[in-house]
């Protein structure tokens, strides 16, 4: 049955009316306050399924806070509003903030506490990349001054207590932020945050070989790695085609890239908690073995097209990383050594001579030993990053460290049993009430 022209116009008007109403409605109190803050620009509303108002905006940051004459860049910030009388959770993201713009994005602490959420993208990631790109300004200290500027600016909106939190590299940033600016926030909760002491820290390899899961499960992982090395003549052409189809190129020969991908397999599997029963039997055909291998270790990680060049630079300079134990696999490897692989494989040639500086590690260790700020560390027991976590911190009144047995890099407060969750939440609420 055909609809009349008049009916169609009426239907269109009904659909557009709410949109027109929203577009012409007066700015909210939050938006008016945001617009009056200095250094903030490009404020845009975002849809949200979890809060009443959500905005993305940019804040002007100095490239080098100690030398303002060096210029500035714009850093992306996402704000989810719960109320001016609520506490505020500051997410110290270590990478891009793109996923936080999604309408359904939720953050654990802000949900638990009905808190405002300030989500800060890390400099040199996502839409917070200075132009031109000068790696000299990508330092941890500079990134912490970014957070200090965001926090001091937005405290003009939110005067209740502030909680800093982050995951992985973001968790590191939470820890570093408390070290450099101990009074900026009231509580810090780093998730799965390593504190590495060198470019190849040395604690991760024995952790994977001796401590994660069970001896039987560790052996199954190693057997799989050995099998895909033994079948290298069959699987390497598949690997090469896969990389070619994806447009990946490498700074090393493809056979060496294959080796590093095999070495990475165990770290990646334990990090993300892949169930052991997902590992194919060593008797499985080439296609089954290859598909599983690629699903766990995407080769772009070692490629010149890596999505993490900024991270690789920071790892080489200050953050540190992990090494590989090649002894069980040496018979089948093309490479003779994995030492210094991050510089050789994952850094551009012009940056391959970057020297690791232990100053940051020493500063944080000294701070944590000497002081006792309100901090809760969350780790997964089978996550290789836990090997370089701050699980050595003992006998502190305020600093608490929780390790989930069998947990992975996805471990959160909600991953623990109910009594432990309640213990953590009770502690947080007690600090908020002080």
Could you characterize the architecture of this molecule?
- The chain has 434 residues and is an alpha/beta fold.
- It has 2 domains: 29-197 and 359-433, Alpha/Beta hydrolase fold, catalytic domain (Rossmann fold), CATH 3.40.50.1820; 204-351, no CATH class.
- 40% of the residues lie in helices and 13% in strands.
- It contains 14 helices and 9 strands.
- It has helices at 5-24, 29-35, 108-113, 140-154, 169-180, 204-210, 215-230, 232-246, 254-272, 286-296, 309-319, 341-346, 359-370, 418-433; strands at 40-45, 53-62, 72-81, 88-92, 116-120, 162-167, 187-191, 376-380, 400-404.
- The strands form 2 sheets. Strands 1-2-3-5-4-6-7 form a 7-stranded mixed beta sheet, with helices on both faces. It has a two-stranded parallel ribbon with strand order 8-9.
- Helix 3 (108-113) links the parallel strand 4 (88-92) and strand 5.
- Helix 7 packs antiparallel against helix 9 (254-272).
- The radius of gyration is 24 Å and the shape is globular.
Give short descriptive properties of this protein.
13% strand, alpha/beta, seven-stranded mixed beta sheet, globular, Rossmann fold, 2 domains, 434 residues, disordered N terminus, two-stranded parallel ribbon
What is the helix content?
Answer: 25-40%
Low-confidence stretches at least 5 residues in length (pLDDT < 50)?
Answer: 1-24
Please identify which CATH superfamily of the largest domain we are dealing with: Alpha/Beta hydrolase fold, catalytic domain
- CATH class of the largest domain reads Alpha Beta
Q: What characteristic shape results from the CA principal axes?
A: globular
The averaged pLDDT comes out at 94
CATH domain fold name of the largest domain: Rossmann fold
Topology order in helix (H) and strand (E) letters: HHEEEEHEHEHEHHHHHHHHEEH
- Any idea how many domains? 2
The tally of helices reads 14
């Amino acid at each position: 049955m055909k609809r009349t022209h008049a009916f169609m116009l009426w239907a269109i008007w009904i659909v557009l009316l709410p949109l027109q109403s929203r577009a012409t409605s007066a700015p909210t109190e939050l938006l008016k306050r945001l617009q009056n803050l200095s250094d903030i620009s490009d404020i845009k509303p975002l849809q949200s399924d979890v809060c009443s108002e959500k905005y993305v905006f940019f804040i002007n940051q100095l490239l080098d806070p100690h030398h303002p004459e060096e210029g500035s860049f714009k850093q992306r910030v996402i704000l989810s509003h719960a109320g001016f009388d609520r506490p505020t959770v500051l997410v110290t993201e270590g990478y891009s903030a793109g996923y936080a713009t999604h309408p359904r994005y939720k953050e654990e602490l802000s949900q638990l506490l009905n808190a405002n959420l300030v989500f800060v993208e890390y400099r040199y990631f996502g839409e917070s990349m200075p132009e031109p790109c000068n790696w000299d300004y990508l330092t941890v200290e500079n990134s912490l001054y970014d957070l200090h500027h965001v926090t001091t600016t937005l405290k003009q909106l939110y005067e209740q207590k502030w909680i800093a939190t982050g995951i992985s590299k973001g968790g590191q940033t939470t820890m570093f932020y408390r070290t450099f600016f101990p009074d900026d926030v009231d509580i810090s909760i780093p998730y799965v945050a390593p504190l590495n002491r060198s470019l190849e820290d040395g604690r991760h390899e024995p952790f994977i070989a001796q401590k994660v899961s069970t001896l039987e499960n560790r052996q199954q992982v190693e057997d799989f790695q050995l099998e895909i090395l033994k079948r290298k003549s069959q699987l390497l052409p598949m690997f090469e085609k896969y990389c070619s189809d994806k447009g990946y190129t490498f700074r090393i020969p493809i056979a060496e890239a294959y080796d590093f991908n095999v070495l990475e397999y165990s770290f990646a599997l334990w990090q993300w908690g892949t169930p052991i029963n997902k590992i194919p039997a060593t008797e499985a055909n080439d296609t089954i073995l290859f598909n599983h291998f690629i699903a766990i270790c995407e080769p772009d990680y070692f490629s010149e097209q890596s999505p993490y060049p900024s991270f690789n630079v920071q790892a080489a300079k200050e953050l540190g990383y992990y090494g590989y134990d090649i002894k069980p696999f040496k018979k089948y490897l093309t490479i003779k050594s994995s030492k210094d692989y991050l510089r050789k494989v994952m850094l551009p040639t012009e940056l391959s001579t970057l020297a690791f500086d232990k100053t940051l590690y020493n500063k944080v260790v000294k701070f944590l030993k000497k002081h006792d700020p309100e901090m809760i560390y969350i780790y997964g027991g089978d996550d290789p990053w836990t090997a370089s976590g701050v699980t050595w911190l003992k006998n502190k009144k305020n600093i608490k460290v929780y390790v989930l047995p069998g947990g992975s890099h996805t471990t959160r407060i909600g991953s623990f049993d109910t009594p432990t969750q309640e213990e953590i939440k009770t502690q947080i609420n007690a600090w908020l009430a002080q």
